Amino acid sequence: MVLFFADLHLGRADPATERAVEQSLLACLTALADRVRHLVLVGDVFHHYIEYRYLIPRGFVRFQALLADWTARGIPVTYVVGNHDPWHRDYFEQELGVQVLHEAAVVSLLGCRVYLDHGDLAIARPFSRALRRLLRHPVPVWLYRTLLPGDLGLALARRVTQWRPERLNPVTVERLRRYARQVLRERQAEVVVLGHGHQAELLRWPEGLYLNPGCWYQEQTFGVLETDMLALCRWTPDGPQTLIRYALS
Questions:
Q1: What is the DSSP letter of 87?
Q2: Which of 39, 125, 180, 222 has its CA 20 to 30 A from that of 6?
Q3: What contacts 83, CB < 8 A, 6 or more positions away?
Q4: Which residues of the chain have pLDDT under 50?
Q5: Where in this chain does the entry annotate a coiled-coil region (predicted)?
Q6: What is the reported pLDDT for 164?
Q7: What is the largest CA-CA distance in the chain?
């Protein structure tokens, strides 16, 4: 079993709410741990994330401990960065054993070719895409980390994310669908997995399957890949609930 989670946005609310979100996430992962062969995080795991050479943002150590435990037991974890958390250095890879991807990639999971991408750059308007690429370039990232003290840099990141509230945008959802279908035509992947849209969906087209795990902090939905099927699920107090599934052709 491969699990897909997207848009957790850890750190966006007050501490009590965040602790509840983290606890439900840990409950879900723990309940499925015996069957998991790979965990994929499809971007925006954190609502704001800036990693420094010797400093990392505080919080969510229980979630990070689970990731470290899983990788130590031989369960791979892949983390595709999103538009809220692109400024990683090497902490997740060196300390937690997590593979961090800064670009879209086609990977083989349970013998299935899967295209992984958060999706924000792919569907952005030209100016927005150029701006986001600039903000991820090593030079401005180095300047930001170097010129601003850590507390000030993180505080500024929090303030910026507060100006841009996360909401479901039908235009974004439709652009992601078009992009996914284009990838299926051009990349010859069997499955495309994207985040960013905050709308959980699993669609079948003649070209292949498209999964968006949805927004965990709002709906607690996630994706499951088995050797013969792909499913969209929701975590409930009674355990995982399958919302829709398709057989792999």
A1: B
A2: 125
A3: 43, 44, 118, 120, 121, 132, 196
A4: none
A5: none
A6: 59
A7: 52
Residue 246: per-residue pLDDT: 96
Instruction: Read off the pTM.
Output: 0.89
Report how far residue 53's alpha carbon sits from residue 48's, in angstroms, rounded to the nearest whole number: 17
DSSP state of 187: T
Q: Contact 226/241 with Cβ under 8 angstroms?
A: no
The DSSP string of 40-74 is EE-S-SBSS-B--SS------HHHHHHHHHHHHTT
Strand 208-212 to strand 2-5: parallel, antiparallel, or no bridges (unpaired)?
unpaired
Neighbours of 17 (CB within 10 A): 11
Domains and CATH numbers, the chain: 2-247 (3.60.21.10)
pLDDT at 99: 96
Radius of gyration of the chain (CA): 17
The pLDDT value given to residue 163? 55
Element (H, E) at 191: strand 191-194
The closest alpha carbon to 34, from 202, 240, 194, belongs to: 240
Q: Are 189 and 174 in contact (CB under 8 A)?
A: no
